[in-house]
Amino acid sequence: METLTLNEKGQITIPASLRKQLGISAGSQIRLFSEPGEKTLHLTPTGSIKDAFGILPKPKKALTIEEMNEKMEKAVAEEVMSYERD
């Protein structure tokens, strides 16, 4: 989780690590929204799925469906555990 500071003009700087994760750079358009009654902002890059082409490195070898499922389950479990620590 990142903590951002709002400047006097109402602007924030998105840290480089988040810009890289989201695949955004100078000139990128993003959507910022909040659910009614929430004090949480959601940041979403705009564009099409084609904009993400090439963002991930080429895998060293192709994975089986079972290996992919295993990795997904592990990633979800780690994500859930990170929320419980906050």
UniProtKB/TrEMBL annotation:
<protein>
    <recommendedName>
        <fullName>SpoVT-AbrB domain-containing protein</fullName>
    </recommendedName>
</protein>
<feature type="domain" description="SpoVT-AbrB">
    <location>
        <begin position="1"/>
        <end position="48"/>
    </location>
</feature>
<dbReference type="Pfam" id="PF04014">
    <property type="entry name" value="MazE_antitoxin"/>
</dbReference>
<keyword id="KW-0238">DNA-binding</keyword>
<dbReference type="InterPro" id="IPR037914">
    <property type="entry name" value="SpoVT-AbrB_sf"/>
</dbReference>
<dbReference type="GO" id="GO:0003677">
    <property type="term" value="F:DNA binding"/>
</dbReference>
<dbReference type="InterPro" id="IPR007159">
    <property type="entry name" value="SpoVT-AbrB_dom"/>
</dbReference>
